[in-house]
Amino acid sequence: MEERVSDLFKREDGKRISGSREWMEYRSKWKEILQRELYGTFPQEAGTAEGTVENSRIVYGGRAVLESVRLSFGKEKEIQLPAEILRPVGQGKYPVILWNRHCPEEVCPVEEEMVCGRKFVLASFFRGDLAGDAKEAEEEGLMRAYPGYTWGRIAQWAFGMSRLLDYVEKQEYCDRRFVTASGHSRGGKTALCAAIYDERFTMCHANGSGCFGAGSLRIFGGHFGHGFGACETITKMYEAFPYWWGPKLGEYSGQNESGMVADGHLLRALIAPRPVITTEGCGDDWSNPYGTQIMWRAAQEVYDFLGCSDRNAIHYREGGHGFQALDWEALADFMEMQFRDKKIHANLVSFREELEGEEKCVWKWERPFYEWRMPKKD
Predict the structure, then answer these.
(1) How far apart are the first and last CA of the chain?
(2) pLDDT per position as a tens digit, 219-237
(3) 232 and which of 11, 211, 327, 340 could share a cystine (Cβ 3.0–4.6 Å)?
């Protein structure tokens, strides 16, 4: 078999991780490698943002509250970031979905059900309000407020997610045990980055996130399967959006893509043992639905190793690139399963510990493109 999926238990020095404690300790090294090769360096802060409610009104027939909040952070509180909080009316603590949005037109198509029915809080901001999605935006306020770092836009937007969390986690309506980082497309890449480096996010959701999201750098395929479709690659992405990433990623563009240590399965595995779900459109060839499936399967080795097999989920729907109602509903179902221990019947796929007496040959034992396995549990 051609090994196209890197061994998640192989250390940078070539030695192999042998125990779950060692894996958890080595996560910090993986995170350093990702900063060096992918995201660039960025400040590590927690609890630094302050927020002021500028407007509050009752919506959805008296069942929800919509708040406009202005966040302030930076050494001199010079960064001002508007955010929106949509939450259920009434006393109580609720799970929170913290969402980085592309623009005002990107809305949750089932927000009434999410907030009034499921009883979730939706907290969001527009990425462009923090850092513009163009190379010319590099000298904007965020870069001036935090000089000396090499971070690209993905890490900057992830930093913004953490600053919104600074505010939200202090509010009476926030159940800090259940906070999900979420986003679509480049926002999905951002949500993964945020959850990797800020473990106050107790769950991660990435929708149609593609290359350096939940997709693969080495295995490609669209809705017709392996080898079909035009999928996002390092080279294509870097040529279009070099400012999303740290400066070293350019070394892997072109003919050197195979030299990159990281891939989607590593980003996913670094969330463990916290839950992660990725949602995909079968017709979203650019986001590499086939490669994403392989990355999900490979990351399962770590989830199995850490004893949290059912916390790594994937969902496919018909259709193309977009944050659609079925994506939101799959996220809500998975949150209910993980946070509220509800039985669900949605078309989610996640694993559980193998039981004695199960069939000896089942589909979920297949490992395309790699032969390595997790070490024996300690």
Answers:
(1) 28
(2) 999 988 898 889 999 999 9
(3) 211
